[in-house]
Every structure is written in C-alpha cells, then in structure tokens.
Amino acid sequence: MKPFLLLASRAEDAAAEDEYEAYLRYGGLEPSQLRRIRMEATPLPPLELSDYSGVIVGGSPFTSSDPAEDKSDVQHRVEHELAALLDRIVPEDFPFLGACYGVGTLGRHQGAVIDRTYGEGLGGVTIKLTDEGLVDPLLRGLPESFTAFTGHKEACTVLPSHAVLLASSAACPVHMFRIKTNLYATQFHPELDAEGLVTRIDIYRNAGYFPPESADMLMEDARTFTATEPMKILRNFVELYAH
Q1: CA-closest candidate to residue 194, choices 186, 206, 202, 184
Q2: I need a surface site. Which of 43, 101, 180, 187 has the fewest CB within 10 A?
C-alpha cells in the first residue's frame, strides 16, 4: 500500500518519538507505512499527494489563534506551509486527519472561528458523538460516549456552515468535525493513552502549559482514566483509505 504521511511539529525529541510510535501502534502501521516529516525542523519539501494514502497532522505546541506578532518565525512558516498544502488537499477531498492542531489548521482554512473560549486542561474528558457522528464511517465501532485525553488552549467556537459536527464535550462544543467526505479534525487526541499523556506531562512540565509543581498531580490524575475508544479512529482511517 502507499504510505500515510504524518506531519509533526513537536521540537522535543522524546515527545516527537512517543507521538510517532503511538500513530504506528494504534494505526496498525509499520514504519515503512508511515512517513513522518518534522515541520518544526525543516521546510516542507515538495509533495505529491498521489504518493500517499492520506495525510495526518499531529498535535503541536503552536496556537494558531495567537496574534501574529507573538508567533515565532518557525510557527509562521509551518502555518503557511500547512495552509498551502490544504489548498491542494481540500479541493481534492484527499484523506486528511488533523489531531488537536488539526482543528486550528483545517478549521481556520475553512473559515471557522478559532479562539481560546473553549480551551481544556490536560486530562480525560467524556466525548459524546452527535447523530452524524454515530453514522460516520471514521467513527465506526465507537460508542455514543467515550473517554479521550485533551489539552488545548484554543478550540473552534463557530464552525463554518459546510462543516459537519461529529463530537462534543461538556466544556468544548466542537471536538470533531468533517469537511466534505474525507477531511476530518479532532480536538481530542486519538493517539493518546494514559501513559502517553503522562510522558507528555513529564516532558512539558517546564514549558509553560501548567505550573511545574502540578505535574505530579496531573500525572496521577491521568492514570485514573482509561482511553481505548479514540484509537479506533486511527485504525478506521487506515482501513478506509489505505491503497
């Protein structure tokens, strides 16, 4: 089959490797079937979409709704390159799954309002599927409600009229949506289990996401949750689009 493409932007090697391994594990992929480009490290090379089965955008430290003057040169470059790629992906309805950062990238590209109104802290939340989500093929096999891990400063406040809302939480009304037939974005992390979240809390304890002294408490809290259903989204994405 043609490989999938993972576009990553985590600068910390430990976090980047843990994310990549999670996508391999829960997508049921071999390394040869998931090509990764670390966009924070190098400009995006020329890409032929026809070389891939689909494109996945992983989580990111970047906050797309921040004022332009507060963004680094690297963030401006990454945002410009992703927007240009979406200019090609969206008209083709080419298989796309954006996890967490995908809401900021695909959402902004399609005219959604992305801001800090509905941010959620690090931890487990209950996700509930909409009627449309219950019948969407990417959510095949998932129950109406399930636990997933989150941690985001921004979220979608207003979806564009042509988007289909697929999932929500009590604190964040847009947790997953679809554009056209094959373009998806989730606010929760479909690749993240409890130990993966613990790893990220440890890595980012001094990165300004939360008070460093709260890291141990957050890690203990993460271990009280079990998230197994969101990973089915990754396997479904692979099974739907591998060719």
Answers
A1: 202
A2: 43
Within the chain, where are the H helices?
13-27, 73-92, 101-109, 131-135, 194-203, 215-222, 231-241
Contact 94, 57 (CB under 8 A): no
Total residue length of the chain: 243
**Which of 193, 171, 95, 177 lies closest to 129, judged by CA?**
177
- Report DSSP state, residue 214: G
Residue 189's Cβ-count burial label (10 Å; 0-12, 13-18, 19+) is buried
pLDDT digits (tens, 9 = 90+) for 140-172: 999 999 999 998 889 999 999 999 999 999 999
Tokens of 113: 């309002």
pLDDT at 121: 84
**Helix crossing, 194-203 with 215-222: angle to 10°?**
170
- SS3 state at 149: strand
Give dist(CA 137, CA 159) in Å, integer: 21
**Each residue's pLDDT tens digit, 87-97:** 999 999 999 99
Local structure of 130: helix, strand or coil: coil
Domains of the chain: 4-241 (3.40.50.880)
Q: Which residues contact 12 (CB under 8 A, 6 or more apart)?
A: 203, 204
pLDDT in tens, 165-220: 999 999 999 999 999 999 999 999 999 999 999 999 998 888 777 899 999 999 99
